[in-house]
Amino acid sequence: MSPPAELSVPLHASGHRARQMFAFVAERLWLDFVNSDTSARGTDALHDFGRFVGWLEAAQVLDAERASSMQRRALQQPAGALAVLGDARRVRAVLRA
Q1: What is the tens place of the pLDDT at every residue in 45-96?
Q2: CB-CB contact of 73 with 67 (8 Å)
Q3: Cα distance between residue 72 and residue 77, in whole Å
Q4: What's residue 12's pLDDT?
Q5: I need a surface site. Which of 9, 43, 62, 97 has the fewest CB within 10 A?
């Protein structure tokens, strides 16, 4: 049985390439996080846990080692990973409001 789509592990991208996967234009981490919600355009940059961890790594909140550790833990504890993703989305929605 494969993990739910929300837990899919992204292709590893590091450094500059990882940063290009997401838009960092606001020069404020919280504002770039709010702007990661592009659902008005039909997509959410953080559509699964793997993308959320990738965003954190690209934003230099996590290093590659910690990001890998979180991905492994997500596969071991999928309910916890989904809860974290839900919490992140709720925080983002509150910041947007």
Answers
A1: 788 999 999 999 999 999 999 999 999 999 999 999 999 999 999 999 999 8
A2: no
A3: 9
A4: 46
A5: 97
Residue 67 near residue 56 (C-beta atoms within 8 A): yes
The three-class DSSP label of residue 29 is helix
DSSP string over 36-68: T--GGGT--TT-SHHHHHHHHHHTTSS-HHHHH
Q: How far apart are CA 27 and CA 78, in angstroms?
A: 32
Q: Which residue has the tokens 């590659």?
A: 64
Residue type, 20: Q
Terminal alpha carbon distance of the chain: 38
